[in-house]
Amino acid sequence: MTAPVIAVTSGEPAGIGPELCLELAGWSGEGRPVVLGDRELLRQRAAMLGLDIVLRDYSPAVPAAPGTLDIIHVPLAKPAEAGILDAANGPYVLALLDRALAGCQSGEFAAMATAPVHKGVINDAGVAFTGHTEYLADKTGTPLVVMMLAGDTERGPLRVALATTHLPLKDVPAAITGELLERTLRIVDADLRGKYGIAEPRILVAGLNPHAGEGGYLGREEIEVIEPALARLRGEGLQLSGPHPADTMFTPPVLAGGDAVLAMYHDQGLTALKYATFGNGINVTLGLPIIRTSVDHGTALALAGTGQADAGSLFAAVSEAARMAMRKQA
To answer: In terms of CB atoms within 10 Å, which of 61, 195, 197, 327 comes out highest?
Structure first.
């Protein structure tokens, strides 16, 4: 089995993404990472950090040597300075994603892993952008994708998928419908089987309200929406438990009964996940026709160019993308 080639987008040029990607020089883990970014930006950031790295144009036939980083040059619109955002480079960030996606669709790359982007500066450039997840869904014509974050803990892997993502909290209850939950849970179940190799996935489903509604006294979404959706899917053979009160769902006895969690909204699930795995957790987009992983953190502008950024999450994202690709090959 050949090592799968993983396209790694270097993300916001003013953030820590470029320097995290430099840490992939001489990669010895799973897969073969290829960094997409501006050659001069990467060279300047390496010099700033005192890194002795050879930047080499990617050639499929020639493996990377120690201290060498395979790159595919995508030109900046304007020279970038560490820590200083510039809306002129918003289109550059999207060009990185477009190049990686095109390579995944053509078979040039087996998967893509993404360094962080800054949503605000892309919007300042005049492009409506809510995140990687939504952008890739639109570009691939995928009607519904699911954001899942994952990481290793002392008690084993923790995987948390989201029914809703970047919504104001006041809009979440109306967005939680039976149809959404059924479509989301089918995607989670299918990708736990296909991308993680779990033959019979067990999914823990959170309630929306405190104490999962307390029998209707603290809200009726569990009774009227969530429980009926779970019952219908159990009839299809999905192994689902819940709705669980979110304040106890992340305790070890409950987590031991599942392979993944479905949270109803962003902070309900990701607060616990990031507490347990931050620095080594990753983001996985489920439901796409390609494999895409990402870091679990932001651009960290204050750390850009200091050499203090931790590449652990990027390493984990590249490794997981490679493992998924190898399962697909097999």
So the answer is: 195
